[in-house]
Amino acid sequence: MEVSGKILVVYYSRTGTTAKIAKEMVGRLGADMEEIIDKKNRKGIIGWLSAGRDAGARRLTEIKEPLSEPSLYDLVVIGTPVWNNNISTPIRTYITQYRDHLHDVAIFCTGSTEDNKALGEMEALLRKKPLAKLKLRRKQQIETGEYAKKVEQFIEQFQAKHG
Predict the structure, then answer these.
(1) How many distinct structural domains can be found in the chain?
(2) Structural domain includes residue 1
(3) Does any domain span residue 163?
(4) Other beta carbons less than 10 A from residue 162's beta carbon
(5) Cβ-count burial of 64 within 10 angstroms (0-12 exposed, 13-18 middle, 19+ buried)?
(6) Residues 59, 42: Cα–Cα separation, whole Å
(7) What is the distance between the alpha carbons of residues 55 and 49, in angstroms, rounded to a whole number?
């Protein structure tokens, strides 16, 4: 699958689920990859609880400075896990800090339910309409492998609009 221009896939993943999808996209697109690193420890039950609390309160966090400058890319694909029905705090921080550096964007989220507001939140923070959106359910789609077809459709969506 070939999309014209330079593509960057940016993601945060606490448990590896969102990372799995991001890596799949990088492989299919030949894109560069940027993992967002949260400086706050989110491991274990305490990390899980603080993640949900921070996301629900729409807090920002301190992230390591990304290695890739998003303005150098024609398309940036941003992926987040869903925390407490919201986008993850590290991705909220990344979007807030870099939204003015982004050209075209596509967004995706991974969570345990279809009923969350993560994609709408991402779009509002970005202040622009994404070329494509993808919402994946962890148990029903990612762990069963059903996600592959949805990822392909997601890529086709932004490929049609981007080039």
Answers:
(1) 1
(2) no
(3) no
(4) 18
(5) exposed
(6) 14
(7) 10
Q: Tell me the CATH number at 141.
A: 3.40.50.360
C-beta separation of 33 from 23 below 8 A? yes
C-alpha–C-alpha distance, residues 110 and 24, integer Å:
14
3-state secondary structure the chain: CCCCCCEEEEECCCCCHHHHHHHHHHHHHCCEEEECCECCCCCHHHHHHHHHHHHHCCCCCCECCCCCCHHHCCEEEEEEEEECCEECHHHHHHHHHHHHHCCEEEEEEEECCCCCCHHHHHHHHHCCCCCCEEEEEHHHHHCCCCHHHHHHHHHHHHHHHHC
- What are 8's two structure tokens? 């960057």
Q: What is the pTM of this model?
A: 0.90
Contact 118, 109 (CB under 8 A): yes
**151, 106 in Cβ contact below 8 A?**
no
Q: How far is CA 125 from the centre of its chain?
A: 13
66: its two tokens: 């990304």
Whole-angstrom distance, CA of residue 120 vs CA of residue 11: 17
Question: Does residue 151 form part of some domain?
Answer: yes
Going by pLDDT thresholds of 50, 70 and 90, the confidence category of residue 8 is: very high
Whether 31 is in a domain gets the answer yes
88-125, pLDDT tens digit by residue? 999 999 999 999 999 999 999 998 776 668 899 999 99
